[in-house]
Amino acid sequence: MRIRFRGTRGSLPVPGPQTIKYGGNTTCIEVRADDGSLLVLDAGTGIRELGRELVAEGAASCDVFITHIHWDHISGLPFFLPLFVPGSRVTLHGPGDPLNMTGIEAALARQMEYPFFPVRTAELAADIRYRTLVEGETVDLGFARVTPLLMNHPAPNFGYLVRCDGRTLFFTGDHEPFGNIYLPGDEDFEAYAALVTERRRVVLDMLRDVDLLVIDAQYTPEEYQRKKGWGHGSMATALELAREVGAGMTVLTHHDVNRTDADLDGLDAWLRARWKDRGVRFELAREGLELQA
Amino acid sequence: MNNDVRQKLLEAVERMPAFPKSVHQVLELSGDINCSQKDLVEVIKKDPVFTLKILRLVNSPYFGLSREITSINHASVYLGLNTLKNVALGLAAVGAIPRSASDRLDMGAFWLHSLAVAACASMLGRKLGVSRDDVANYFAAGLLHDIGKVVFALYMPGRFETATRMAAEPGAVLHHCEREVIGATHADIGGLLAEKWHLPGELREVIAAHHSMGEGGDFMLKDCLFAADQISKKLSFGSAGNFDVEPLPTGVGHRFNMTMDELIADMPSLGEEVENARIFIKLGESR
Lengths: 293, 287
What we know:
Structural class of chain A: alpha/beta
Order of helices and strands of chain A: EEEHEHEHEEEEEHEHHEHEE
Organism (chain B): Pseudodesulfovibrio methanolicus
Oligomer: heterodimer
InterPro entries (chain A): Metallo-B-lactamas, RibonucZ/Hydroxyglut_hydro
Pfam family, one (chain B): HDOD
Mean pLDDT of chain A: 94
CATH superfamily of chain A: Ribonuclease Z/Hydroxyacylglutathione hydrolase-like
Number of domains of chain A: 1
Strand content of chain A: 15-25%
Protein name (chain B): HDOD domain-containing protein
Protein name (chain A): MBL fold metallo-hydrolase
Radius of gyration of chain A: 19 Å
């Protein structure tokens, strides 16, 4: 299984001279099986370039797994060229929205609604299918099996475990470590702590010995203290998790929009010094980075 | 309104159940962007009926969770603050009102009308720049504006039926018919109920005055509620026994600087927002 990062930013695209090395596009990962079959994780603005390449080769067939429908994870979708090409087949998988009682089809339909976008979904030429997933069900694509897991985020948001070519990849676009809403001494502190432990256990069990972990690490530990409840983790919490599950390789992604290449280089050096000899192999996600899982 | 009528209304109002404190608190917390997850969880947990409804909703197929959620703490860990807050807000508002035992009022249609007015009043409030904190009041005002009809239907069913039958005639207006038959309108008794429930002053006032518009333009919530009521009737979102769409008074028109049709055109997502609220009608009504 080969992974290529097409977009590594959280929140918003940030193109410019300060974001060349790590990239300015929002989240998107291309996953190729050894036989060339394709699945895509998230449809941030990074998916546009992938779409151009696919169409250059003719009609495309692919499965896109959306973690959740916050803008940065879907904003490239209306610009994904295979959707416009007759003969292409695109299946969008993702979580439903229980409060609005809509499925993943709403991700595309809503953002393409007039007056937000000039083309409506009804006018797209590809064979577009939708599959709203529920937690724990496994989608068998033949060349890969993908299982969603509900992560901790202000919106219903899946992490995806991809099993392909005998290897495993877990991707969580956004995720904040589970926390206790009570303080030590509060009546419910222990009971809540037990529930948090149980949720963590579910995540740890699913990620155990994963070959490649791609994880939200938007904040520094200091920033995280000020941004608890925003739905993102810190570099430290991500690497702790990686160590705990014994991930073969970890890629930290969802870079904060305010970070320049120099900032990220600095953080990379700082993390390497801090995590030296702790048995965790990691990289910071860079647009264009390719890895073999 | 004479004293006899007032006494009868007060007796009817006395028979209505109290407005649950927890619902009040959830409405308040939901309007606060900085509301803590712990505060919200604590409020919900203290109300067993509310707790049960939330658990029923999060365990429904809409959520498609892989394991059963067994407590509010569990839901809090699993779903996080925002989802829980949205679930609670929707359920809180609808669940506050007793299910009518009367066949004088089609409660499904009544709720749909009330929710449509709530959604529309909130949108109009936002359009006028009302703060997030205050928009919850606009929603509550829309939801509760016709609550007097529930009191009538429950405790003065015969006379309310006469009034609604009269109002079904072309050109008739329900609150005029109510005044003729009962001696007071659903707005009058709604205002009295709002007092019993100790709702905030502005909410009490707007429920009591939602059919006494004059030229309009006296306060923003009242103008938004009036416009939302007419728009919901015009678009036939549910029904609460009154089909007469009144024109916007001059003051209300000036407030928005738009005609009713222009306002409608300016809110293309209204239908969707109303649709979204339907699940809360279903679950909120369940006991």
